[in-house]
Amino acid sequence: MTDPTLSQDAAHAVALGILTHFQRQADQGLIVLDERLHVADVTESLEARLDPAAEVRGQPLLHLIHPDDQGAVPDDLLVRLHSGQDAHAEVRLNTRGVAVWCELDFLPVTPPQPGMWALAIVRDITPRKAAEQHARTLEARRDALMNVAMDAIVSIDRHGRVVAWNPAATTMFGYTLKEVLGQQLSALIIRPAERDAHQRGMARHQQTGETRVAGRRVQVTALHKAGHTLQVELMMKPVQIDGQQYYTAFIHDLTDQLEAQRRLREQALHLNMMQEQLPTLSWTTDPDLNVRMVSGQTLQRLRLDPRALVGRHVTALLGGGREEDIVGAHLSALAGQRGRYMQRVQERVFEIHVSPLHDTFDRVVGTVALAHDVTDGHREQLLEAARAQVLRSIAVGEPLPDTLRLLAGLLTQLPGVIAAQLLRVHAGRLRTEASVGLPGDLLVHFMGDVDPQALHPAWAEALAGQDASVATLEHPSAWTPWRVALAGCGLRACWLFRVADRQGEAQGLVALYRALPDAPSGRLSDTVTQAGQLMTVALEQDHHLQTILTTREETLRTLGVALEFRDYETKGHTDRVVRLSLALARRLGLSEAQQDDLRRGAYLHDLGKIAIPDQILLKPGPLSADEWAVMRQHPVTGYEMLRHTPALGQACLEVVLHHHEHWNGGGYPHGLKGEAIPLLARVFAVVDAFDALTSARPYKQPWPEDRALGELRVMAGRVLDPTLVEVFVALRAEGPPPESATDLLAPAPPQAASDGPTGADESGGPRS
What we know:
- This protein is α+β, with helices and mostly antiparallel strands.
- It has 5 domains: 4-130, PAS domain (Beta-Lactamase, 2-Layer Sandwich), CATH 3.30.450.20; 141-258, Beta-Lactamase (2-Layer Sandwich), CATH 3.30.450; 278-378, Beta-Lactamase, CATH 3.30.450; 397-546, 2-Layer Sandwich (Beta-Lactamase), CATH 3.30.450; 568-734, Hypothetical protein af1432.
- It contains 29 helices and 21 strands.
- It has a 5-stranded antiparallel sheet with strand order 2-1-5-4-3. Strands 7-6-10-9-8 form a 5-stranded antiparallel sheet.
- Helix 24 (634-642) runs antiparallel to helix 25.
- The radius of gyration is 59 Å and the shape is elongated.
- It starts with 7 loop residues before the first helix and ends with a strand.
C-alpha cells in the first residue's frame, strides 16, 4: 500500500490523504481495517448509508455485510492480506432500506501502521447489478415464452442465419435447435422457388427500410424436414440490437385449422343437402331478424327461391301471418326462450317453432326456426270445429239460412274448394239456399228458381243420381252462360253431390267449385256425404219448426179472433191491427224479434175482455164510472192469463198490459207516462186507436180515414206518442198495407204485434 522507505509519519499522512479523497466520492467509500479485520475507520459517505443503530468502528468487517452475502468474503482473506495479496468480493451491505450492492477490493498496508493494517475500497455497483438482474429476467421470460409458445418463433440475423429456434419450431418443421443454429433459414423451410424473393426482400429492407410482410399476417407454404409442405401463417418483425439487424418470425401452423375448415365445409354441405331433403322448412335470422339462411324441401313445393328470401325481414319471409305473432316468437327466441306461431302460406298451414341460435361462446346471435306443415291436421281441426258449429246451430234451432251458411262454410275448408253452394229442389227446379265464396258472375245465374238443364246438363245428371264428380269445362256439351261464367272466374271444375231425403228423393244439391278439373277423393266424398246428411236434418227440422210455429201463430190468432164472435161489429179487428202494426214496425226499423213480440201481442191484446160482462162490453151508450172500472181491468186480466205461457216473451206481455197507457200519464192500468211506456205498447196504441176510429162499434159509426188521422194528431202528445203518430200518418199517406196471410202467420221474418182499439172513453180516446 505505501512505500517502505517512507517514514512512519509520512505513510500515515498518505493514508489520511487517501481517506480524505474517498470522503469526497458519493459512489465510493473506504474502510480501514486493523490486524483483526475490525473496522478502524470508515468514510462518512459510507457510514451514512450503513445501519445507524449500530456502532461501526471497532466492529468486525462481516457486521457491515448483509448476512446472506457474508459467505462471499474469502475465508482466507486474513491470510492473503498477511502475505501481501489483494482480494476481491461483491456483496450487499447492511444499509437502511434497499440493499446496496458493493464491490470490495481489499489492499494490505505495507508496512502496516498502527490501526491501519488493510484498506477496503468500496464501490457502489447497485445499478450494474440491477441491470444484470433485469437482463436475466428478460432472458428468463424470453426462454419461457420460447419454450411454452404454441407457435414457432424463429430469429435470424441480417444474413438470414438462424439465431433463435424454439421447441414449437422443432415440432412444426422437424429440425432441432442444434441443427439449425447458424444455418440459412431459406435453405431450411422456404421452398426453392421462393428463396430468391426472400433474399431480395431482406436486402430491400436493409437498404431502404421498405418491407412487404413486416407487421402483416401472411399465409405461405413452408417446407418440413421430411420434405412435405404445410400451410402456415407468418408475421415478421424487424428489430435492431446493438446496431445489428435481426428478424423474428412468428409462425402459426394452419394444418389443423384448414382441416377443421374443410370438415366444416363438408359438414355444412351435407347438412344443407339433408335440410333440402327434409319435408320441412327451416331458416335462421340475425339479431335484427333478417333471414340469413333458408332451406328445406318445402321450398320446392311452394316454388320459392331461397336466394330471393335471404336478407329479407322474417315477417316478409313467407307472406301472410300475424306480424305480432311472428315478431313475438322470434323476440322470445332472442331472449333465450322458445316461441311458436301458426302461418298460412299458399293454402298450406305451418306450425313454426323458433329457438335461440347460439355461437361457440353460448351467446344468442340470432334465431333458428323450423316450420312443420300441419295443413291436414289443421284442416281436420277446422272441419271438426265447423261441424260442431253446424250441429250446435241445428240443436238450438237457429234460422235455416244461418245453419246452411255455416254448412257451406264447412265445405270451403275442404282441400282446393274455392266456393260452396247449397241448393234445394222445388218442383224440379233449383233454388240457392246458401253459398260461401261464390263469385258474383256465377250468383246472377241463380236468381230465383233455376232450370238445372239451363245451367248445364251436368246439373240435371247430378239430380238424376249420376256421377257425383263433374269436370264441367271438359263436359261434352254446349257452352251455356253459366259455363262461360265459370270459365271467366278461373274455375275449371264444379263437383255436384246429390242430397236425398229419407225416401231417396232428391231434395237438393251440394256444389263445390275448384280451379282444377280433378275428381274428388273418396275421403272428400264421404265428408260431403256427411254434410248432405246434415243439410237433410236441417231442412227437416226447419220444416217441423215452421209447422210448429205456424200452428202456434194460428192458435194465438184464434184466441184473438174468438173475441170477435162476442161482438160481430168488431169482426176483422185482430187481422187489421196485426197488419197495421207490422207495417209501422218495419217503417220504424224494429228488429225481427221485436216484430214477433208485437204481432203476438196484437193477437192477444184484448184477451182479458173474456172476463168483461156482455152488458158492459156490448153496451151501445157511454159507460158509467163503475162500468169503466170493470173495463179498465181487462189489460191486467189478459196479462195474468198469459204471463205463465213460456212461448210469449216479456215484450209481448207488455203490449197486452200497457196498450192503454197514455203519453201524458192519464191512461191505465198503471198510469205510465212518456217513454216509461214500453215502445211496442206505444206502437200498438197508435194502430189500435186508428182501427177503433175507422171501424163501426155499437156506440159509433166508422170515421173516414182523413178524419181519423186528424184525430190521431189531436191525440198526439196527450194520449199517443207524437213521433209515432207522425210516422204512422206518413205511412198511411203511401196507401194501405197489402192484406197477406204471410204477415199474419209466417214467423220466419218476425212480425210485430198490435192491440185492437175499441171506442172512445171518458177522456176522449177510443174505448176498449
